[in-house]
## 1
Amino acid sequence: MFTRKIHRNGSTVYWILQWEVCERLEINQVWFFVSVNCTRTLLAIILLTLQCWRRLYDTNFVSVFGKNSKMHLGHYILGFLHYTACVLTILGGASNFSMTYPSKPVLQWVDLNVMDLFATYLFLWAWWHQYKVTVILANLRKDGEGKFSVETALLSHWWYQEKFEDYPRNRKIIFPCIY
């Protein structure tokens, strides 16, 4: 029989997962450390919440949908599971969810390092550009009925032909190889 020596500095979720891996692979020792502090966890939850609120705003006030368009139930369930899994993953790696966490969690912004700040900046940059793309795509549906605006595609095509000499003259605009 194998003896297991598991360091429980990790969270409950990771501890259970590594125990299962040990059982299935018959490994006698696992060393696992989680270095996510409470401040990083809070930052990740704030950024995820910001993303969820922005996507809700995009869906309700920016995007243009067709009058008869419907969302497939499978896509809805997949989206729900995605965001649920994101939250569980963030909380699962948090040290305050550890089985042996010694004291009350302390939130200190000085716990964040340069990599955390860079990752936050990168997230916010991508977050803003995703919003801009959503606005651009919504503006392509100028008729308000959710139909793709052919006029916009034609105008863009003609503008490219006018501004760029090496733009292919025989390029198809709407349907590749057809029109």
## 2
Amino acid sequence: MKKSYIDLHMHSFYSDDGEFTPIELVDMCHEAGIQIMAIADHNWVKANKEAAKHAKALNMTYIPAIEIDCTYKGVNLHVLGYGIDNDVCFNQLGENIEKQELTCSMKKLELTNALGFDLKKNNLMHFLAMVFIPVKCLEKLCLMIQDILIMNY
């Protein structure tokens, strides 16, 4: 009897902690002998359609998934959903969270500058682009820089 390997929790570059495209993840799973897989990106279902199509071409089983970040009674949770459809409401969730994160980042930048620094979003983006930081990491890196500056002031 042939063994069947599965991996039901990975993130594509649509998640802030993902690195690879959905196609790359399917290829990596295929090369590793995984026959059943799911990409559970944080608050997005963008990867599911292309990953499912590519997995099917490789005779793999793909289970559409999502990982929803939420808070319940003051506790941060990550709720996994499997076998979901690609309903637009899931991507609206991701867009809403992205807008909240951007607003928070701009507030942190404002607070950092109130401490006497002269940081501008465009200058940070230009610097980061020069050192070859992928765009998907830019927002996270800006937040980290601002947090460090605030903590060490």
## 3
Amino acid sequence: MNRRDAIGSDDEVVRHALIAVERLHRALWHSVGRELAADDLSVVQWLLVSEVARGEGRTLTHFARATSRDAGSLSRAIHQLTQRGLLENRRSHADRRSSMISLTSAGRAMYRRLAPRIERIAQAMDLGTEAAQLDRIAMALAHAASRIGCGQRGAPATSSRKDIFT
């Protein structure tokens, strides 16, 4: 019996994948949101803060691509986090049309305090003893998205770990 016979038709495979991904999305969004609630931080704001922590001094365009969010929602999140003193938004010396985004000392402290709580969510998924297993699953999902040509806002997605996680 081959894999297709065991699972069913291709449309059933797609249906199962859609349901599984949606359930995981909702569960992760809820779990992360619950961890961030006490700090009055949204999941979108956390995505931005955690991405900035991995590569400070990058542009809004970079962060929009890296987090698969639209520039408008990230612009609002940047403004809110700047108002709270967690982000700094400086004009680029090389290109005055763009801004470079970085964490303030308060933003770095908040990231260091919250990151272990978010990491515990990944551990709670219990996907095996290796943390790399979750990374492989994320890469497989990104690869699948790139294969069907549905990356960020209709653009082809990337399956490069560097583009996804940095």
